[in-house]
């Protein structure tokens, strides 16, 4: 039997759920009320994605890039990396994604999908879930409301809103923009499963919906 | 043991007033010890692990909880604290606790080198020393056999130069036992660290006898399978016949089984709770089960 076969998901978890969610709560308390600004930012991206103007699309990509940078610096690097050394690598990946989103300003100039297309509507739905649904996650997972995750502040809703925007706008070089948010969501599913947290379904659903929307023809 | 308190304070960014004079804590007299074969230095049979439990980041509440655990550990006569660069913030948490307690002089510091590039090993050990706030470690182990062929010669050189006292290797959960045996048989290591508990007893066949034959001290990790064993048995009644050993809880039952193996030098249960660290230490007091009772203990748990 291969040595890897002897490992379980829990073997890769370096911290306890209590430590992780206390870290998120303390982070949220430090940021408050900036989370409200971030949610407003997510809604602005949503509005920009729903319009057909290329300036609005460019502004959406730039705002998403800012959100990835903020997550990388404030959450992954300054907080999460104190209990998970692997987050130094994740920080680099998030900064790379921010750079790619800035490049995507050029790649979204061709124009959006038709407003009534299923893919565009689905992408916007994903953005609504990321910006307005995610903060209610603790209620479903039975955690303290202070551990709520908001776009821009926490990686999962930021990835959800980003994937939604990318699916809705279908920029060129989409294959380059998808891997990091999808991989982050997969990492998050595994981490939350290892912590036996019911919130694991959320990033899992984001991955499923993203690929489902990419598979539909229109 | 001497310490560089300044390094800990700088590392943690704390400016609080800490006691500077090393203190002697607790009474180890009634805590059963077993000697390190290569030196005859006695060590209490119960130590303190830090995997997951001490990885609390910079959370001041949780850091104080860990410091209280370390305090209770020394108060109860404990000595061996084990950590690794792999354990997130466990090293600075230990340094914080030691600093708060005034660096108890009975500390036996057990650390690990865990880096595939052996050229970076010395720098990693230096960083670990700064986190702990110690000038040298008592024991430095190659974690999970990572680049052991390159690290071990460097560690033996450090030992010869007086920059550490003992050299060891580690594995966990039964992995790479053949390689562990190879190292034990061919290298002059002082310690080996393996997983051993009432349900994971593979090491009884070859590794523990080899340790006795070669005079290698044995540290036991995962004595409770990271708490799973306790959760598995906690609703079951403790058998009456275990009372003769002084075990009053399942944790003590499980620990007494481990430390009663004559090859075992020290078990390192990890905890975040002061009452649990005291309970664990109490397993190292009183009577240890003999071979007949050990077999009965194992059979009882297997049947649950």
Could you explain how this protein is built, in words?
The complex is a heterodimer of chains A (218) and B (304). Chain A is mainly alpha-helical. Chain A has helices spanning 17-31, 34-50, 54-77, 87-107, 118-133, 137-141, 155-169, 174-177, 179-194, 201-215. In chain A, 42% of the residues are buried. The mean pLDDT of chain A is 92. Chain B has a seven-stranded parallel beta sheet. Chain B has a two-stranded antiparallel ribbon with strand order 1-2. Helix content of chain B is 38%, strand content 13%. Chain B has helices spanning 5-12, 60-75, 90-100, 121-132, 148-160, 177-186, 207-214, 228-233, 250-259, 274-282, 291-303; strands spanning 33-35, 42-44, 80-82, 108-113, 137-142, 164-170, 191-195, 217-221, 266-267. In chain B, helix 2 packs across helix 3 (90-100). The chains are: A mainly alpha (218), B alpha/beta (304). Chains A and B meet through helix 1 of A and loops of B.
Summarize the structure.
The complex is a heterodimer of chains A (218) and B (304). Chain A is mostly helical and 218 residues long.
Overview features:
heterodimer; A: 218 residues; mainly alpha; 10 helices; B: 304 residues; alpha/beta; seven-stranded parallel beta sheet; two-stranded antiparallel ribbon; 11 helices; disordered N terminus
Mean pLDDT of chain B comes to 91
Q: How is the quaternary structure best described?
A: heterodimer
Low-pLDDT regions of chain B: 1-26
Number of strands of chain B: 9
**In whole angstroms, how far apart are the ends of chain A?**
46 Å
Share of β-strand residues of chain B: 5-15%
Helical fraction of chain A: 55-70%
Q: What's the β-strand tally of chain A?
A: 0
The largest pleated sheet of chain A is described as: none
Largest Cβ-defined interface: A-B, 17 and 19 residues
Report how far the terminal alpha carbons of chain B are from each other. Answer: 45 Å
Helix content of chain B: 25-40%
Strand content of chain A: under 5%
Topology of chain A as a string of helices (H) and strands (E) = HHHHHHHHHH
Give me the side-by-side strand order of the main sheet of chain B: 3-4-5-6-7-8-9
